[in-house]
Design brief:
Bound molecules: zinc ion
Number of helices: 5
Structural class: mainly alpha
Largest sheet: none
Number of strands: 0
Shape: elongated
Oligomer: single chain
Radius of gyration: 14 Å
Distance between the termini: 19 Å
Strand content: under 5%
Length: about 90
Amino acid sequence: MAMEACDEPDCAATLKELDVFLDDELSDGARQSIAHHLDDCPDCLSAFDFHAELKQVITVKLQNDEMPAGLLSRIEKCFSTDFDGDGKIG
Ligand SMILES: [Zn+2]
């Protein structure tokens, strides 16, 4: 999976901080620098929007018990993200 259009040095760092950003666990300064990068970088912005949306959908589904465990672990592995907050991916 290549993201060739998103090869600024800041992009990797921004995407790495994405989940912390979404969880609202970043300092104000770090949050501002990410928000600033997202302003200038449509690639990261779309990745960010997608993650935010996906996480929201998964949270609702988990609350309503609509998410099969196997599917969740596949999604977590795909995005290297601990969506259900159980401390592990997959
Ligand atoms: Zn970027």
